[in-house]
Amino acid sequence: ATDAAARAGAIARRLRRVAGGARVVGITYSNPFLGLYLRGEEGRIRALASVPLAASFNGGLRRAYAGAGARTADVAGAFGSSELVQVESGPGGAPVPVAVARLCRLSWACAPPPRGPDIHPNAAGYRVIAREVLRAAQR
What we know:
This protein is mainly alpha-helical. It has one domain (about 5-139). It has 5 helices and 4 strands; from the N terminus they run αβαβαββαα. The protein has helices at about 5-20, 40-65, 75-80, 100-105, 125-139, and strands spanning about 25, 70-75, 85-90, 95. The strands form 2 sheets. A two-stranded parallel ribbon has the order 1-2. Strands 3-4 form a two-stranded antiparallel ribbon. Strand 3 (about 85-90) and strand 4 (about 95) form a beta hairpin. Helix 1 (about 5-20) packs parallel to helix 2. The radius of gyration is 16 Å and the shape is elongated. The relative contact order is 0.17.
């Protein structure tokens, strides 16, 4: 497990200890590096290279949460972070992989300055995250 996953697992274990019977939910993360796809050939290469790394990171988080008895909200899945085969319209109407289009719609990663680029979700993205956390908590 990565250091981040190990720390997330340790935090989830501590929360489970002090939370009594409360459900503890951890999240996977969208891949903000997909926003690089819109920045020329080198950006596309970097964006695509980030996908297996993000998947591995999120896999480590899932295992850490499960090992701690916590549930996992699949934010990466809800953002479509690994959907590279299907395309749809991205910023400016150009066809881009679904993963890129969704990231652009749900975060500030593709926004021009001064608002972006920023890795954080926008209001729509936070709604998706909240829905996934609620869904995981209710399982």
